[in-house]
Amino acid sequence: MSDIQHVPAAEGSGRIGIVHLGLGAFHRAHQAVYLERYRQRSGDLGWGVCSANLRGGVALVDGLREAGYRYHVAEYAGSQHVTLREIGVIEEVMFSGRNGSGRWGRDLEALLARMTDPAVHIVTLTVTEKGYFLSPAEGQLLRSDPAIAADIDNPEAPRTAPGLVVEALARRRVAGVPPFTVLSCDNMPDNGKRTRIAVTQLAACRDAELAEWIEREVAFPCSMVDRIVPAMTEDDFDRLTELGVEDPNAVVGEAFSQWVIEDDFPLGRPSWEGDGVEMVTGVAPFETMKLRMLNGSHSLLAYLGSLAGIETVFEAVSREDLVALLRRYMLEEAAPTLKMPAGTDLAAYAESLLERFANDSLRHRLQQIAMDGSQKLPQRWLLGALARLEVGAEIPCTALGVAAWIRYTAGRDLHGTAYPVDDPLAATFAKLHEQHGDSPAQLVDAFLAVDAVFPPALAQWPGFAEVVTAVYRTLTEEGLSGALQHIERPSP
Ligand code: NAI
Ligand code: CS2
C-alpha cells in the first residue's frame, strides 16, 4: 500500500437526531461516513445516531460500547490507496433482540424511548430485504410470519423493524410529538413505498386510525444506496493491523459511494448534499438501474460462481467468460429495460461496475451475495426479464442465472461440496429438490410455481420454463464453462 490517508473523527459529542435500525457493516461504512463528513464539514453536532440491532449482532453493540463508540472504516481504491476514517457519529448503540437465555428485548424500552424523543427526526433502516416481512414478488405484509404474528399479538414489545416503527409512531402520536421520517436504505425497489406498506399494514392490524394517521402524516422517502461493503474476514483484520489499526469493530469497503434520496423530510434533515448525497424528487430510475445492473450482475456471479467453487467477486471477474456474460447481461437484458434521464450513459455505467468488481482489495464472498436469493431475484432479474420478453427479446443470461440459482439452492456445488443455503425459503427449496431433483423439467416447473418469488406472468411465459430447463441441464452436465459457451452460440 503506497498511499494511506488518516481522517480522525470530529471532536466532541452531539445530540441524537437519527435512530438507525440494523447496525451492520453497510450502515457503518455508508450512512455513518456521510454523517461523519457532514459533522466535520458543518460543525453541526445535531445529527448524532443511535444505532440498534434487533436480531443478531449483539457482540457488535457491546463491542462498540466498550470502544467508546469509535470505530474505523477503511476505504480501498484498489491496492495502492486507502483512506482510514475514524467514525464517532454513532453515539449510542442498542440491542433489542433475543439474548443468550432466549429472552427478547434487552434494550427495547430504551430504544422505544429514543425513537419517541422529539429530537429524533429521522429513523433509517438497513435490516436486509427480509427484515420488512413483505412477500418479495408482491410486496405485501407477511401477516402469518411468526415474527409479525408476535408483533400483532404483542404490539407494545415489538420484535421486527416494522413493529418497532409502528409502536414508536403510536407513542409519538399519543404524546403529540410529530412523526419522524422513515428512510429505508435497503436494496429494494421503491424501498420507501415498500416500507410504508409494511408499516401501515402492520399498524392496521392493531388500530385502523393509527394506520390512517401514518398513511397521512408520515414521510417514507425512497433512496438508492451504493457502496460495496463485504462482510469482514480475518484477512481484512490482518491487513488493517498492518496499517496500524487494531479495531474489532472496523469495516472495509470500496472508495466509491453513492446515496440518492427523495427529498421529503418534514422535520428537517442534515444538509448532507454538501457531502455528496444527491437529493432528488424521484429516485426510481436510479434505484432500478442499480438493482438491475449492479445487483443483477452480482447475483449472476454469486450463483454461477458459487456452483463452480469460485469464492469472491474479484476471482469471478478475473475470468473473461464471466466478464463477457456480465457485459451482455447488462447491455442486452438490463439496460434496455431502464428509463433513465437524458444523458445517462448506461454503457459507461456498466464498464464502471466491472471496474469496481475488479477491486483487488476487497474479498467480497459470493456466498454472501447468494444469501436471501428469494428476496432479491424479483427486483434484480425477474421484472427486467419479463419486460424484455414482452417486447419479443430473448433473455439467455437471466435464464442461465435462474437455472444457476435453482441449482444453488440444492446446497451442493457442481463438484459436490456442501454449503448452507441462507434464505427464508430454504426449507421450501430443499423440499422441491428432494421431490423433483431427478427431473430438471419438473424441478424448474416447481420452482417457477413459487409465486412469492416468480411473477406468474413470467413463470407462465411461453417457452420460459423450457429455456431455463435446457440451460439447467447444460450447467449441471457440462459445468460453468459449458453453460457459458452454450449461451454464446447463436440460436438455431
Ligand atoms: P450485515 O450482515 O453486516 O448486517 C445485517 C443487518 O441487518 C444487521 O444489523 C442485522 O441485525 C440486520 N437484520 C438481518 N435480518 C434482520 C431481520 N429479519 N430483522 C431485523 N434486522 C435484521 O449486512 P450489511 O452489509 O450491513 O447489509 C445490510 C443491508 O444493507 C443489505 O441487505 C442491503 O439491503 C443493504 N446494502 C448493503 C450493501 C453492502 O455492500 N453491504 C450495499 C448496499 C446496500
Ligand atoms: C450485494 C449488495 O449482497 C448483495 O446482494 O449485491 O449488497 C451490493 O454489494 C451492494 O448493493 C452495493 O451497493
Structure overview:
The protein has 492 residues and is α/β, with parallel strands linked by helices. Helix content is 47%, strand content 12%. Strands 6-3-2-7-8 form a 5-stranded parallel beta sheet. Strands 1-5-4-10 form a 4-stranded mixed beta sheet. It folds into 2 domains: 278 residues, Rossmann fold; 203 residues, Orthogonal Bundle (N-(1-d-carboxylethyl)-l-norvaline Dehydrogenase, domain 2), CATH 1.10.1040. The longest helix is centred in the C-terminal third of the chain and has 25 residues. The structure holds 1,4-dihydronicotinamide adenine dinucleotide and D-mannonic acid. 1,4-dihydronicotinamide adenine dinucleotide (NAI) binds next to helix 1. The site of D-mannonic acid has 10 residues, from helix 10 and helix 14. It comes from Litchfieldella anticariensis (strain DSM 16096 / CECT 5854 / CIP 108499 / LMG 22089 / FP35). GO terms for molecular function: oxidoreductase activity, acting on the CH-OH group of donors, NAD or NADP as acceptor. Pfam families: Mannitol_dh (PF01232), Mannitol_dh_C (PF08125). InterPro entries: 6-PGluconate_DH-like_C_sf, 6PGD_dom2, Mannitol_DH, Mannitol_DH/Oxidoreductase, Mannitol_DH_C, Mannitol_DH_CS, Mannitol_DH_N, NAD(P)-bd_dom_sf. Keywords: NAD, Oxidoreductase.
What are the segments in which pLDDT stays under 50 over at least 5 consecutive residues?
none
Oligomer: single chain
Helix content: 40-55%
CATH architecture of the largest domain: 3-Layer(aba) Sandwich
User: CATH fold name of the largest domain, please?
Assistant: Rossmann fold
Radius of gyration: 23 Å
CATH homology superfamily name of the largest domain: NAD(P)-binding Rossmann-like Domain
Shape: globular
| Separation, N- and C-terminal Cα atoms | 51 Å
Count helical runs.
20
Mean pLDDT across every amino acid position? 96
Q: Give the names of the bound compounds.
A: 1,4-dihydronicotinamide adenine dinucleotide, D-mannonic acid
Note the main sheet. 5 strands, parallel
CATH top level class name of the largest domain: Alpha Beta
Number of strands: 12
Strand content: 5-15%
* Count of domain modules: 2
Strand order of the largest sheet: 6-3-2-7-8
Secondary structure category = alpha/beta
